[in-house]
Protein: 3-oxo-tetronate 4-phosphate decarboxylase
Organism: Devosia sediminis
Amino acid sequence: MSEEAQHRDEIVRFGAVLYGKNLAHGSAGNLSVRLDDGSILVTPTNSSLGFLDAERISKVSADGELLAGDPPSKEAFFHLAVYEQRPAARAVVHLHSTHSVAVSCLCHDDHADVLPPLTAYAVMKVGKLPLLPYFRPGDRQLAASVREAATAHRAMLLANHGPIVSGASLAEAVFAYEELEETAKLFFLTQGHKTAPLTAAAIAELNVVFGN
């Protein structure tokens, strides 16, 4: 089986997993994988992640040209923006999961990092989570904000929309996304309680040991 065929099957498999866990709903959200030639496979527009067809997944050039499959998600452009800034990234996950989107709808004093470092795994897999300004879905102006944030962050949060998470593989990006959603749940569960986020020293140690 070719590299492309393997990744098409992988996107179908992870799409079904995310849909089954209620992290994706309806036709919201999109997944992509970067191939060795720089083109990407990305889920088609108006498709449900729970019912993808491997052969119909879009193949798009690094310049955004459709090469094969159905028309791509209208948000494929910000996947390409992430890849442009993160050479090591091979996959991007963007979903509208409930708790993460809820965080994106709150007022925040500091947009540079909108979730506290509640657990070591949130620091290791997600890192700091900047909140980007609101743009309507499909607005190409979003690309500049995504590109800027992706320079230093593997994950970011689109205001009133949801997270974008990248990884060295689709599995890594999906697992990081799941960690982000669980951290968002913890954030809401601990509201009204005195919490003890990780200290700066603890975060620094994690970054040294795990290379973040």
Q: What stands out?
A: The radius of gyration is 17 Å.
